[in-house]
Amino acid sequence: MFRYNFKYELKSLLRSRWLLLLSLILLIVVLFAGYNGKEKVKERTQELKNVVLEANTNDAQMAKVLDSIERGLQVSVSPRRLPNMPMNVAYNYPRVAAIPAAPLTFISTGQSDLFTHFIKPSAYGDSFSLDYSELANPIQLLFGSFDLSFVIIYILPLIIIAFSYNILSEEKEYGSLKLLASQPISIYQWIVQKTALRFFWLTLITLVVIAITLLLFGFDFKANFSAFLQLISLVCAYILFWFTIVLLVNLVVNNSAKNAVSLLAIWVFIILIIPAVVGQLANSFYPIPSRTKMITEVRELKEELSKKQDKILDNFLRDHPEYASKNGNNNYSFWHKYIASQELVEEELKPLISSYEDQLTKQQNWVRLWQYSSPAILMQQSFNNLAHTSTSHYQSYRNQVALFSKEWRNFFKPMLYGNKNFTTNDYQKLPSFTYEPPINSSILLKVIVLLIFSVIFIFIGKQVFVKKIKKGTIIS
């Protein structure tokens, strides 16, 4: 029976040219989405290369000037950029702290259109309030980016609905279902096999198209085979989820027009309404304190502390006697007072910054908790994690940059208070930033959740079918 179904279902699909049309539509939208995502990654990568090249060029010039100074040669450099002064180096020659693109970054824009992918923290500035936002097009932010995750999450279910909404009802409306019922076969087994065959063909087409897209845009399958397996596992489980919904609606409604309307309503509820409600509730239950208020408080506190810098410096040197002048020279510069006040500013603003970070963490935990309420949320979270563009990745990046900013400032602090010059030997020891991505949650768990949903829908569909068979409403 399965061979018979496979043979004639394929003939039917080829005659109606559904397979060719679907293959063409999927190929076009997936290739365009892949191209769009790859162009974004290419643009950001090139920008990062330019920034790193500029930093390396400045470093090379600094090293030459420093070498000339150490050999007693005259240099034509502004006193504010002389590299033998430690704070000049700390301010004018910062390191580039970047979050590099992952192999699958182009499949999901995620938070990358909101946050920058590199920062140049220097000795002057606040590590806790570094500006991470991008200047983005508000229209694009409203509608999102057309990337591979958008195609799979939003468009692919619509293709599945168009492909299979009338699997059973069409046979009933053409009158062939009664003829089929007269044969010694199970109608339920027949409809499940027919759905499974369409699932097989559409999944095969989708995976081939995705593989072609990844290949065309330079994805290294050998080096990133694990990420590829996770990607196709998610896609297969998601397609199966939607096919089981189609099967359930076919068994429950069993009318082509009503099937289409019902499936579109389910699509709207799962894809649009649930994610919007979850996001709105996260903002309502855990509102993030105003960033404008935080900046205002920072400015007010700085203004207040600027009037007390001499006293702050005295207290700082009392707490850190190793930084006090040994020869009684108390002619301290702006940098001495500024570095001393920074610790106090950070301590005073720690409760406000903590409240900001805590609320953001609670929002993320809320979304993680309710991601299983909608496969759309679950898939988007998974794609963002695979692409390293999730909120957790950028939050981890932000925290790492804040720590590096302190490390950078602390590197020069002993030289500043010890009245020591910056030397070529110190240049070799300058701290560098290396981004460490956070550990992603298991993709396997999310695939299992989608499979559980699918099994539940199949079970419900079978129970509905049995009841309708007893009442005789499947055929009539």
Describe the structure in your own words:
The chain has 476 residues and is an all-alpha fold. The protein contains 17 helices and two strands. The chain has helices at residues 2-16, 18-70, 86-92, 138-143, 148-164, 169-174, 176-181, 187-216, 225-252, 256-285, 291-306, 309-319, 334-370, 375-387, 391-417, 424-428, 443-471, and strands at residues 97-98, 118-119.
Which helices and strands appear, and what pairs or packs with what?
Layout: H1 2-16, H2 18-70, H3 86-92, E1 97-98, E2 118-119, H4 138-143, H5 148-164, H6 169-174, H7 176-181, H8 187-216, H9 225-252, H10 256-285, H11 291-306, H12 309-319, H13 334-370, H14 375-387, H15 391-417, H16 424-428, H17 443-471
Antiparallel strand pairs: 1-2
Briefly characterize the structure:
With 476 residues, the protein is mostly helical. The protein is 71% helix and 1% strand.
Radius of gyration: 31 Å
Element-by-element helix/strand order = HHHEEHHHHHHHHHHHHHH
Would you tell me the overall average pLDDT? Answer: 82
Query: Uncertain regions: pLDDT < 50 for 5+ in a row?
Result: 134-143
Strand order of the largest sheet: 1-2
Helix/strand class: mainly alpha
What count of helical segments does DSSP give?
A: 17
Distance between the termini: 24 Å
Estimate percent helicity.
over 70%
- Principal-axes geometry comes out as elongated
> Main sheet?
2 strands, antiparallel
Number of DSSP strands? Answer: 2
